[in-house]
Amino acid sequence: MKLPAFAFLCGLLSLGVSISDHDCPCLEDLNYTADLIATQHPGYDYFINREAGERYETGLAQLREELGTQCQLGQTDCIGYFNRYFELIPDKHLRARAESREERQASNPRPLVATFDLSEDRIGTVELSNFGRQYNESLDSFYTYLRTQIADCSQLVVDLRVNGGGRIANMEALVELIHDHKSNLSQVAILQSYHTGSAAEQFLFTVRRGMGNRVKTFGQNSYGSLAYAGTEPQVTPHLGIHFRLPTRVYRRFRPYERVGVPPDVKTKNGKEMQVAKQWLSLE
Fold first, then answer.
1. Collapsing DSSP states into helix, strand and coil, what is residue 155?
2. 116-129: per-residue pLDDT in tens?
């Protein structure tokens, strides 16, 4: 004997069986992402035991409770909840978006700024806006050109004020280039700002190796996204929310994650070059 459809549905509900595979897609996507973070984020064990701990668990439980009562949320509203979740994690690379990074770059491409200027008093100025892998060929060409120019410099200014980071290898190539000419460089001034992030923040440290007090930074606190790298694209299964999950951790940079890197000399926004050149003139 067949049960009427209504009775059948009531029976399922009384047993707690879900009629749909995703009755609350935002909540289910959040649970999917939380599981991914717990199993694949390279810093999870560290921050859950030392930095985030109870705050993370309490915050996640609160978000789950809220989303359990709001099962009609679409992608746009759900992204707001995702970013509230990511705020619980000390990793600034985590940010939810509607589209992938590749889609954003295609719809709003930002040209690479890579310039070099040599003054009459042999002060070279390098401005570089990005270390991104999409600029690999352009950066290789620029570095080849730069290698011949730095040989004529006695001092160098490296302007990373709008450099949000990118590929670690592209950053390290610039460090290597400077180190190869450190015998003729008496001073290296680096300009930084809140927009200096990720690989560009790591540059603030790695360029100092073997150069000591000859390197000094000027500007404002950096962005604070340098402890994790090697991000891989992720997309949630129901609402298609995009984010990037790091695959590598740089333990020595953990104290600066979310906090940022302070400059050696703090300056007002827009005064970085002026103050840096005053320091160079003391040589």
1. strand
2. 999 999 999 999 99
